[in-house]
Specification:
The protein has a single domain, classed as Rossmann fold (3-Layer(aba) Sandwich), CATH 3.40.50.150. About 30% of the residues lie in helices and about 20% in strands. The chain is built from 12 helices and 14 strands. Strands 5, 6, 7, 8, 9, 10, 13 and 14 form an 8-stranded mixed β-sheet that branches. A 4-stranded antiparallel β-sheet has the order 2-3-1-4. The termini are far apart. Belongs to the class I-like SAM-binding methyltransferase superfamily. RsmB/NOP family. This is RNA methylase, NOL1/NOP2/sun family. One of its GO terms (molecular function) is S-adenosylmethionine-dependent methyltransferase activity. InterPro entries: Methyltr_RsmF_N, MeTrfase_RsmB-F_NOP2_cat, MeTrfase_RsmB-F_NOP2_dom, Nop2p, RCMT, SAM-dependent_MTases_sf.
Length: about 300
């Protein structure tokens, strides 16, 4: 039934996703409103104090893969003093994963290549205890205001904001200890938030984004120091934007993948799609479908440089 409603909105989308996940649960969760979640900003307050205060008004449930993350049930969390003062950041639970797996510590030099609106940037800054330096870059001028606003609101004093095409950073070879490429994507995972992403989805756009993502990840890898960690993520489920991008990096560089070990349910990565066969190594990536954890659809890969 829900699948047929999706088909009425975008027939081409359903025809493709019948090859990716045609389960009843997939469409049920794609149509289900997403649970609200937040991350406690430990640059300003400890987790226990926030949980004790907010538990007086809301039902909270810890996000299993992020010790500062909580699902919240009840209306009005964004009207609380905790939100206004930057003690909590409203952040989708699956999007908390990339900074968690970056092996962050104090005094690193980090590049967040596509940073706006800044959820992961502020999380990175938090895990570095405001030491070292985070270059928070975004290509779109129109998105810099919200990025700068969030960096200020959440008290991140180790962040420098830049406005560049992410590919610009490829010239800084072997420079950054950690790189996050949360790549621009077709946003299929966000259909749960807004059906406009279902209406807007086009295969032609997916293929164009895949080409862009491949050039971005090559630049990100060039900028990464030996022994450094590059995390690639998207909030979409199209193989061309996920496994195919990682396969391209593995084929063209000496990059190695590291398996992500977190208490998170996932779907097997796709090794073959539309006649293209990907490296067996992509099994180490994390492919999350909406029904796995009742979150957005998401994809994460952890890359290390020898």
């Amino acid at each position: 039934m829900i699948k047929e409603q999706f088909r009425e909105i975008n027939r081409k989308f359903v025809e493709k996703y019948e090859k990716i996940d045609d389960s009843k649960e997939f469409y049920e969760f794609m149509a289900k409103p997403i649970r609200q979640s937040f991350r406690v900003n430990t640059l300003k307050i400890d987790v226990k104090s926030v949980v004790e205060r907010l538990s007086e008004e809301f039902e909270l449930e810890r996000v299993p893969w992020c010790k500062e993350g909580f699902f919240v049930y009840g209306e009005g969390i964004t009207k609380t003093p905790e939100f206004a003062l930057g003690l909590i950041f409203m952040q989708e639970a699956s999007s908390m994963i990339p900074p968690v797996v970056m092996d962050l510590k104090e005094n690193l030099f980090v590049l967040d290549m596509a940073a706006a609106p800044g959820a992961k940037t502020t999380q990175i800054s938090q895990y570095m205890n405001n030491t070292g330096c985070v270059i928070a870059n975004d290509v779109k001028y129109s998105r810099l205001n919200i990025l700068i606003s969030n960096v200020q609101k959440y008290g991140c004093i180790n962040v420098v904001v830049t406005e560049k095409d992410g590919r610009y950073f490829g010239r800084f070879r072997d420079t950054f200890d950690r790189v996050l490429l949360d790549a621009p994507c077709s946003n299929v995972g966000m259909i749960r938030k807004n059906y406009k992403y279902l209406k807007l989805w086009r295969q032609m756009e997916v293929e164009a984004l895949s080409r862009l993502q491949k050039s971005l990840i090559l630049a990100a890898y060039k900028a990464l120091k030996p022994k450094g960690v590059l995390v690639y993520s998207t909030c979409t489920l199209d193989p061309e934007e996920n496994e195919e991008v990682i396969d391209y990096l593995l084929y063209n560089t000496d990059a190695k993948l590291e398996k992500i070990k977190l208490p998170v349910k996932s779907t097997e990565p796709i090794l073959e799609f539309n006649g293209k066969r990907y490296s067996e190594e992509v099994k180490k990536c994390l492919r999350i479908h909406p029904q796995d954890n009742d979150t957005e659809g998401f994809f994460v890969a952890k890359v290390v440089k020898p």
